[in-house]
Amino acid sequence: MKKEQNSEEETKPSVLIEFFNNLGILQLFIIRFFKDLIRPPYDFAEISKHMYELGVKTMPIVSVLGLIIGFVLALQSQPVLARFGAESFLPAMVSISVVRELGPVLTALIFAGRVSSGIGAELGSMRVTEQIDAMEVSAIDPFKFLVVTRVTATTLILPILTTYVIFLSIFGCYIAIQFISPISPTLYIGAVIDSLKFGDFIPGVGKTIFFGFLAGIIGAFKGYLAENGTEGVGKASTTAVVYASLLILITDAVLVKLTIWLWPTS
């Protein structure tokens, strides 16, 4: 019994030490990313390639997401607004909700689920099969070629995907309204435009720059430093999604508070 208790006590500090060690390594990883980001040469062709692979190929799933968000939110909100005779506010309510919070966060989580795991698995496989070591021997900087290009691509493409999802959600809301209480497209567009302000759209889409960076950097971090063969690749892919999603939600909470502080009347 004493031996078991001692072994448990020994594992607790090791878990904490591993956590803070990983946190420190991640900070160094991010610092190295920004150093290599501003250092030439700049591989725009590789960034464009990854924007297509990681962003454009994600459009089918986010298209379904965008339509469902607006459609379901309108159907769920209409009975509540009808109790107060405020059905005319349905387009405004859905638009503001999607632009400020639901569109950016849900798109980022879907994006992280696909992209973080993909980057983690891809770089992890290259690490355990010694392809990254081979690049270093060939005088190629694997960090700049593999990590910087992918993270830059995810940072740039997510705001574009989010804007696309927002417009689809607003269109999904219009479809739902046609089943409830049909209105003309002109009246609907006018109600949406009147309800949205600059302080709604810019903070909502702008914070997805941070979300895209987190999705990319966490996946690259887990994959680039993977070890222990195929088991390590699977672990890198799984933990990348969990950590990226968690950090996106935490970052969103912080950015929402900053948005309220910077745009108190928006």
What do these coordinates show?
- The chain is mainly alpha-helical.
- It folds into two domains: 1-39; 41-262, no CATH class.
- 86% of the residues lie in helices and 0% in strands.
- It is built from ten helices and no strands.
- The longest helix is centred in the middle third of the chain and has 39 residues, at 90-128.
- The protein is elongated, with a radius of gyration of 22 Å.
Give a quick summary of the entry.
With 266 residues, this protein is mainly α.
Annotate the secondary structure layout:
Layout: H1 2-37, H2 44-54, H3 59-83, H4 90-128, H5 131-137, H6 142-180, H7 185-195, H8 198-206, H9 208-224, H10 229-262
Salient structural properties:
266 residues; 86% helix
Compute the CA-based radius of gyration: 22 Å
Number of domains: 2
Main beta sheet: strand number and arrangement?
none
> What share of the residues lie within helices?
over 70%
The beta-strand count equals: 0
Structural class: mainly alpha
Instruction: Give the topology string: H per helix, E per strand.
Output: HHHHHHHHHH
Quickly count the helices.
Answer: 10
Q: What would the average pLDDT be, to the nearest integer?
A: 85
| Poorly predicted segments | 6-13
Beta-strand portion reads under 5%
| Overall geometric form | elongated
Terminal CA distance: 62 Å
